[in-house]
Amino acid sequence: MIYQSFAELYDELFDPAMYDQWLDFVAERVAPTSGELLDLACGSGRLGVLLAQQGYQVSGLDLSEDMLALAAKHAAEADVSLPLMAGNMLDLSEIGQYQTVTCFADSFCYLTDLDAVTQAFTQVHDHLAVGGQFLFDVITPHQTDDVYPGYMYNYVDETRAFVWTSYGIEDEDHAAEHDLAFFTKNETTGEYRKVTELHHERTYDLPDYQQALAKAGLTVKRVSADFGNSEPTSDTTRWFFEVTREA
Fold this sequence. Notes:
CATH architecture of the largest domain: 3-Layer(aba) Sandwich
Number of helices: 7
Radius of gyration: 18 Å
Shape: globular
Number of domains: 2
Order of helices and strands: HHEHEHEEHEHEEEEHEE
CATH class of the largest domain: Alpha Beta
Low-confidence stretches: 1-5
Mean pLDDT: 94
Number of strands: 11
Helix content: 25-40%
Distance between the termini: 34 Å
CATH topology of the largest domain: Rossmann fold
Protein backbone atom coordinates (compact mmCIF):
# COMPACT_ATOMS: atom_id res chain seq x y z
CA MET A 1 0.00 0.00 0.00
CA ILE A 2 1.43 3.36 -0.99
CA TYR A 3 3.16 5.19 1.90
CA GLN A 4 1.78 2.77 4.48
CA SER A 5 5.09 2.02 6.20
CA PHE A 6 6.22 5.62 6.54
CA ALA A 7 3.08 7.73 6.28
CA GLU A 8 4.02 9.99 9.16
CA LEU A 9 7.52 10.70 7.86
CA TYR A 10 6.20 11.39 4.37
CA ASP A 11 3.57 13.71 5.80
CA GLU A 12 6.12 15.69 7.80
CA LEU A 13 8.46 16.18 4.85
CA PHE A 14 5.88 17.03 2.16
CA ASP A 15 6.09 20.64 0.99
CA PRO A 16 3.22 22.44 2.80
CA ALA A 17 3.16 25.21 0.18
CA MET A 18 1.63 22.78 -2.31
CA TYR A 19 -1.43 22.29 -0.11
CA ASP A 20 -1.96 26.05 -0.08
CA GLN A 21 -1.72 26.09 -3.88
CA TRP A 22 -4.21 23.23 -4.25
CA LEU A 23 -6.51 25.07 -1.85
CA ASP A 24 -6.32 28.21 -3.99
CA PHE A 25 -6.97 26.16 -7.14
CA VAL A 26 -10.16 24.74 -5.61
CA ALA A 27 -11.30 27.99 -3.97
CA GLU A 28 -11.08 29.92 -7.24
CA ARG A 29 -13.43 27.42 -8.90
CA VAL A 30 -15.77 26.12 -6.21
CA ALA A 31 -17.58 28.12 -3.54
CA PRO A 32 -17.74 26.75 0.01
CA THR A 33 -21.53 26.89 -0.25
CA SER A 34 -21.68 24.81 -3.44
CA GLY A 35 -22.39 21.49 -1.71
CA GLU A 36 -20.55 18.41 -0.50
CA LEU A 37 -16.96 17.90 -1.66
CA LEU A 38 -15.04 14.61 -1.77
CA ASP A 39 -11.25 14.74 -1.61
CA LEU A 40 -10.33 11.49 -3.35
CA ALA A 41 -7.01 9.91 -2.31
CA CYS A 42 -6.98 12.43 0.52
CA GLY A 43 -3.76 11.14 2.06
CA SER A 44 -2.95 12.69 5.41
CA GLY A 45 -5.87 15.09 5.14
CA ARG A 46 -3.84 18.28 4.97
CA LEU A 47 -5.86 19.68 2.07
CA GLY A 48 -9.12 18.47 3.56
CA VAL A 49 -8.39 20.31 6.80
CA LEU A 50 -7.59 23.52 4.91
CA LEU A 51 -10.83 23.21 2.93
CA ALA A 52 -12.83 22.59 6.11
CA GLN A 53 -11.26 25.64 7.71
CA GLN A 54 -12.49 27.67 4.75
CA GLY A 55 -16.05 26.46 5.26
CA TYR A 56 -16.22 23.60 2.75
CA GLN A 57 -18.34 20.56 3.55
CA VAL A 58 -15.54 18.13 2.77
CA SER A 59 -15.03 14.40 3.24
CA GLY A 60 -11.92 12.35 2.50
CA LEU A 61 -11.38 8.89 1.04
CA ASP A 62 -8.10 7.00 0.87
CA LEU A 63 -6.84 3.45 0.43
CA SER A 64 -4.30 3.72 3.25
CA GLU A 65 -5.48 3.24 6.83
CA ASP A 66 -2.23 4.84 8.02
CA MET A 67 -2.92 7.99 6.04
CA LEU A 68 -6.51 8.09 7.26
CA ALA A 69 -5.30 7.86 10.85
CA LEU A 70 -3.08 10.88 10.22
CA ALA A 71 -5.98 12.72 8.57
CA ALA A 72 -8.15 12.10 11.63
CA LYS A 73 -5.34 13.38 13.85
CA HIS A 74 -4.89 16.56 11.79
CA ALA A 75 -8.64 17.22 11.72
CA ALA A 76 -8.86 16.82 15.50
CA GLU A 77 -5.90 19.14 16.04
CA ALA A 78 -7.50 21.76 13.79
CA ASP A 79 -10.91 21.20 15.44
CA VAL A 80 -12.70 20.74 12.10
CA SER A 81 -15.17 18.17 10.83
CA LEU A 82 -13.59 15.90 8.23
CA PRO A 83 -15.52 12.64 7.70
CA LEU A 84 -13.11 9.97 6.46
CA MET A 85 -13.65 6.75 4.53
CA ALA A 86 -11.38 3.86 3.62
CA GLY A 87 -11.85 2.93 0.00
CA ASN A 88 -10.43 2.27 -3.45
CA MET A 89 -10.99 4.83 -6.20
CA LEU A 90 -11.63 1.92 -8.59
CA ASP A 91 -14.79 0.99 -6.69
CA LEU A 92 -16.73 3.81 -5.03
CA SER A 93 -19.99 1.88 -4.84
CA GLU A 94 -20.22 2.30 -1.07
CA ILE A 95 -20.24 6.10 -1.09
CA GLY A 96 -22.81 8.73 -2.05
CA GLN A 97 -22.87 11.56 -4.55
CA TYR A 98 -20.93 14.82 -4.36
CA GLN A 99 -21.15 18.21 -5.96
CA THR A 100 -17.36 18.40 -6.23
CA VAL A 101 -14.65 15.74 -6.38
CA THR A 102 -10.95 16.62 -6.06
CA CYS A 103 -7.91 14.37 -6.50
CA PHE A 104 -4.42 15.87 -6.36
CA ALA A 105 -0.75 14.91 -5.94
CA ASP A 106 -0.90 12.91 -9.22
CA SER A 107 -2.78 10.11 -7.45
CA PHE A 108 -4.15 8.75 -10.74
CA CYS A 109 -0.57 8.18 -11.91
CA TYR A 110 -0.20 5.39 -9.33
CA LEU A 111 -2.83 3.27 -11.09
CA THR A 112 -1.56 0.39 -13.18
CA ASP A 113 -2.63 1.44 -16.68
CA LEU A 114 -4.93 3.67 -18.71
CA ASP A 115 -7.81 1.21 -18.35
CA ALA A 116 -7.59 1.60 -14.57
CA VAL A 117 -7.49 5.39 -14.94
CA THR A 118 -10.60 5.24 -17.12
CA GLN A 119 -12.29 3.03 -14.53
CA ALA A 120 -11.47 5.56 -11.79
CA PHE A 121 -12.84 8.39 -13.94
CA THR A 122 -16.02 6.37 -14.47
CA GLN A 123 -16.38 5.91 -10.72
CA VAL A 124 -16.00 9.66 -10.25
CA HIS A 125 -18.67 10.26 -12.91
CA ASP A 126 -21.09 7.94 -11.13
CA HIS A 127 -20.65 9.78 -7.83
CA LEU A 128 -20.52 13.33 -9.16
CA ALA A 129 -23.74 15.33 -9.29
CA VAL A 130 -24.92 16.55 -12.69
CA GLY A 131 -23.34 19.96 -13.14
CA GLY A 132 -20.72 19.15 -10.52
CA GLN A 133 -17.00 19.78 -10.86
CA PHE A 134 -14.13 17.30 -10.89
CA LEU A 135 -10.72 18.91 -10.24
CA PHE A 136 -7.49 16.91 -10.41
CA ASP A 137 -3.88 16.93 -11.51
CA VAL A 138 -1.43 14.49 -13.10
CA ILE A 139 2.24 14.69 -13.96
CA THR A 140 3.10 15.10 -17.63
CA PRO A 141 5.25 12.94 -19.93
CA HIS A 142 7.89 15.69 -19.71
CA GLN A 143 8.11 15.01 -15.96
CA THR A 144 8.50 11.24 -16.33
CA ASP A 145 10.69 11.27 -19.44
CA ASP A 146 12.95 14.28 -18.89
CA VAL A 147 12.85 15.40 -15.25
CA TYR A 148 12.66 12.23 -13.19
CA PRO A 149 15.43 10.09 -14.77
CA GLY A 150 18.47 10.67 -12.59
CA TYR A 151 16.60 12.96 -10.20
CA MET A 152 17.85 12.94 -6.60
CA TYR A 153 16.71 14.72 -3.46
CA ASN A 154 18.30 14.43 -0.02
CA TYR A 155 17.10 15.77 3.33
CA VAL A 156 18.99 15.52 6.63
CA ASP A 157 18.35 16.88 10.11
CA GLU A 158 19.49 15.86 13.59
CA THR A 159 17.27 12.80 13.89
CA ARG A 160 16.39 11.68 10.38
CA ALA A 161 17.40 11.60 6.76
CA PHE A 162 15.47 11.12 3.53
CA VAL A 163 16.92 9.99 0.21
CA TRP A 164 14.79 10.10 -2.95
CA THR A 165 16.17 8.76 -6.24
CA SER A 166 14.12 8.50 -9.45
CA TYR A 167 14.69 6.41 -12.55
CA GLY A 168 13.12 6.21 -15.97
CA ILE A 169 11.76 2.88 -17.24
CA GLU A 170 13.00 1.93 -20.70
CA ASP A 171 10.30 -0.57 -21.64
CA GLU A 172 7.31 1.42 -20.40
CA ASP A 173 6.17 4.71 -21.90
CA HIS A 174 6.01 7.75 -19.63
CA ALA A 175 6.81 5.80 -16.46
CA ALA A 176 9.21 6.29 -13.59
CA GLU A 177 10.22 4.57 -10.38
CA HIS A 178 11.05 6.35 -7.14
CA ASP A 179 13.38 4.69 -4.64
CA LEU A 180 12.55 6.32 -1.29
CA ALA A 181 14.55 5.68 1.86
CA PHE A 182 14.00 7.16 5.31
CA PHE A 183 16.54 6.89 8.10
CA THR A 184 15.32 7.64 11.64
CA LYS A 185 17.60 7.88 14.66
CA ASN A 186 16.92 6.06 17.91
CA GLU A 187 17.73 8.75 20.48
CA THR A 188 18.59 6.13 23.12
CA THR A 189 20.96 3.93 21.13
CA GLY A 190 22.02 6.38 18.44
CA GLU A 191 21.33 3.74 15.80
CA TYR A 192 19.44 4.53 12.61
CA ARG A 193 16.46 2.55 11.34
CA LYS A 194 15.99 2.39 7.59
CA VAL A 195 12.59 2.22 5.92
CA THR A 196 12.36 1.94 2.14
CA GLU A 197 9.62 2.06 -0.48
CA LEU A 198 9.71 1.66 -4.26
CA HIS A 199 6.98 3.67 -5.99
CA HIS A 200 5.89 3.36 -9.60
CA GLU A 201 4.22 6.20 -11.49
CA ARG A 202 2.94 6.31 -15.04
CA THR A 203 1.30 9.07 -17.01
CA TYR A 204 -0.10 9.44 -20.53
CA ASP A 205 -0.33 11.92 -23.36
CA LEU A 206 -2.94 14.62 -22.95
CA PRO A 207 -5.28 13.21 -25.64
CA ASP A 208 -5.28 9.89 -23.76
CA TYR A 209 -6.59 11.59 -20.61
CA GLN A 210 -9.14 13.54 -22.62
CA GLN A 211 -10.39 10.37 -24.31
CA ALA A 212 -10.54 8.51 -20.99
CA LEU A 213 -12.61 11.31 -19.46
CA ALA A 214 -14.95 11.35 -22.46
CA LYS A 215 -15.32 7.56 -22.26
CA ALA A 216 -16.30 7.99 -18.61
CA GLY A 217 -18.99 10.48 -19.60
CA LEU A 218 -17.16 13.55 -18.32
CA THR A 219 -16.51 16.85 -20.11
CA VAL A 220 -13.19 18.68 -19.96
CA LYS A 221 -13.61 22.42 -19.50
CA ARG A 222 -9.95 23.38 -19.23
CA VAL A 223 -6.46 21.93 -18.87
CA SER A 224 -3.87 24.27 -17.40
CA ALA A 225 -0.44 24.43 -15.78
CA ASP A 226 0.97 26.08 -12.66
CA PHE A 227 -2.10 25.41 -10.49
CA GLY A 228 -4.38 26.91 -13.12
CA ASN A 229 -2.36 30.09 -13.55
CA SER A 230 -0.94 29.47 -17.02
CA GLU A 231 -1.47 27.53 -20.21
CA PRO A 232 0.43 24.26 -20.75
CA THR A 233 3.69 24.27 -22.69
CA SER A 234 6.16 21.59 -23.70
CA ASP A 235 7.96 22.16 -20.38
CA THR A 236 4.87 21.77 -18.19
CA THR A 237 5.46 19.17 -15.47
CA ARG A 238 1.90 18.89 -14.12
CA TRP A 239 -1.48 19.28 -15.81
CA PHE A 240 -4.48 20.61 -13.90
CA PHE A 241 -7.90 19.46 -15.10
CA GLU A 242 -11.26 21.20 -14.69
CA VAL A 243 -13.95 18.69 -15.59
CA THR A 244 -17.73 18.55 -15.25
CA ARG A 245 -20.52 16.03 -15.51
CA GLU A 246 -23.13 17.39 -17.89
CA ALA A 247 -25.60 14.50 -17.79
